[in-house]
């Protein structure tokens, strides 16, 4: 059923949206955030990936514009994170993450040791506004 929906949506206008945010509270909410995202995104034919590391989220969402915008409005209003900063929104001709209703990875801080260039992005004092969108996508794709 999902497969049929994805095929259908591949002929439609699609967008991809990338944002960064900061976790509010403790990491015990991560599992619930992910399972709700998978359930809702399957229903709304939204695909993408979510990365969490050291208090910061990076997420890429893709799908039909109205669905992505609606989901992003819900996400922005979610009290489990703050400083939700839109990094990029672009039209795409096909999905990059067609098989992921929401891939998720909790990246441990130690894993960043192998990627010194990425470490600064997860420091407390690093503003999301300084994150280059393509670097954000690169980080997501490296780990998730
Ligand atoms: C970092 C983060 C990522 C999220 N990603 C998604 C997502 O991809 N899709 C989604 O529907 N909800 C996502 N949510 C949850 C939404 O903010 C919101 O709780 C949910 O859409 C409400 O759905 P419900 O009314 O079915 O409970 C995310 C929340 C957070 C904090």
From TrEMBL:
Domain BLUF: start-end pairs: 14-103
Signal peptide extent: none
Matching Pfam families: BLUF
Source organism, top-level taxon: Bacteria
Official protein name in the record: BLUF domain-containing protein
Species this chain originates from: Undibacterium macrobrachii
